[in-house]
Amino acid sequence: MRNTASSKLEGGFNSNPPTPTEVSLTISPQDLHDSNSSLPSLGAGERALAAAKGSAKRLIDIWFSSKCAVLRGLGIIDFSLPPNHILRRTSSHTIRHYYESGLTSFLPIATAAIADGVNLDESVSVLDFACGAGRQLLHLTRLYPNVKAHACDIRADAIKYLRGAYPTAEVYANKFDPPLKYPDATFDLIYSVSVFSHISVQDAQLWLAELRRVAKPGATLCLTFNSYTSLERYHESGKHSELSAEKLKEMEFFFDAEDEAGYARRMAREVALGFGHPGMLRPTGDIFYSAEKARSLMEAAGFELKKILPGVIDRMQDLAVLRRPNQ
Ligand SMILES: C[S@@+](CC[C@H](N)C(=O)[O-])C[C@H]1O[C@@H](n2cnc3c(N)ncnc32)[C@H](O)[C@@H]1O
């Protein structure tokens, strides 16, 4: 790395803030996915409840963005924050958690990519796949301003926010299924945090093939997934206690997802909140892989698995460092 870590890590809390871009929270119909037609219709009571929740969330969004503006004005923070309802969706309930967990999940990726020969100080093309509310994109664009940053996610409202907040990054709302809009062999580095930990094995296979297509020959990929360390964390909070590491090894993977009907009702409730369709076409959940199964999935997709770093993401997920072979 050309710059020292300390100079790159300045900023965040209690530093001299630049003026951040103010972002409109209004989502227009063309920003939203329009795949509502196949959803079950909700009862009047359920619709009314969702509409009331949506209004409450909008009020909290206004309060939260005012609070952020005050914190920025006072020089306490110097970065942009998504609307509160988007922030909370990616498991960050506080501003500090959004900033710090973004940093602690991004740094192992940057470190692994640099160790694998990606020069993030140059204008290399980087894709943040399933970027959510931009937890990692925040740090990619701050620490490595020379890279050509791209990001995508199915959540159109998050993409709308990111477009305003990161004008130098190219962000767009992709569909739940491949393909992405990028030509073959576009990216030097692709990273993705916490999506292969939620989608089914079949969807993971589809996306691994697609990420391989858009990776340049020789590109590095850093993908996170749940394995034995995540399982330990879940056990600590009393979840999935029936699944031991030995059992996972035997089963190869374990997918805990809702059934089709439950999933469809959840989507319908989300739409009724008034923030648009989340873009999901099939159920997602928590998926855990044995290290061996993760390796075989990635190798079957045509990647060379360079290494797996257990538990380095959010002190839970493993980070797989992959290389797209040259031919
Ligand atoms: C747990 S969040 C992680 C977001 C972000 N990477 C982070 O770590 O904060 C998972 C994200 O994957 C996105 N997602 C799920 N399926 C997707 C797909 N097929 N294509 C793109 N994004 C997807 C969701 O919308 C959500 O934002």
Task: Reconstruct the topology from this structure.
Blueprint: H1 5-8, H2 44-73, H3 84-89, H4 95-115, E1 125-129, H5 135-143, E2 148-153, H6 156-165, E3 170-173, E4 187-192, H7 201-214, E5 215-225, H8 228-236, H9 245-251, E6 253-257, H10 260-275, E7 285-289, H11 291-300, E8 304-313, E9 317-323
Helix pairs in contact: 2-10, 4-5
S-adenosylmethionine is lined by residues 90, 130-132, 135, 153-155, 174, 176, 193-195, 198-199.
Describe the structure.
The protein has helices at residues 5-8, 44-73, 84-89, 95-115, 135-143, 156-165, 201-214, 228-236, 245-251, 260-275, 291-300; strands at 125-129, 148-153, 170-173, 187-192, 215-225, 253-257, 285-289, 304-313, 317-323. The protein has a single domain, classed as Rossmann fold (3-Layer(aba) Sandwich), CATH 3.40.50. The strands form two sheets. It has a seven-stranded mixed β-sheet with strand order 3-2-1-4-5-9-8, with helices on both faces. It has 327 residues and is of the alpha/beta class. The longest helix has 30 residues, at 44-73. The protein is globular. The structure holds S-adenosylmethionine (SAM). The site of S-adenosylmethionine (SAM) has 15 residues, from loops.
- Secondary-structure element order, as H and E? HHHHEHEHEEHEHHEHEHEE
Can you list the ligands bound to this structure?
Answer: S-adenosylmethionine
Multimeric state: single chain
The neighbouring-strand order within the major sheet is 3-2-1-4-5-9-8
Number of self-contained structural domains: 1
Query: What is the CATH class designation?
Result: Alpha Beta
Number of strands: 9
- Mean pLDDT over the residues: 89
Cα distance spanning the termini: 28 Å
Kindly estimate the percentage of residues that lie in beta strands according to DSSP: 15-25%
Which regions contain 5 or more consecutive residues with pLDDT less than 50?
1-7, 15-34
Question: What is CATH's topology name?
Answer: Rossmann fold
Instruction: Please identify which CATH superfamily we are dealing with.
Output: Vaccinia Virus protein VP39
Q: What composes the largest sheet?
A: 7 strands, mixed
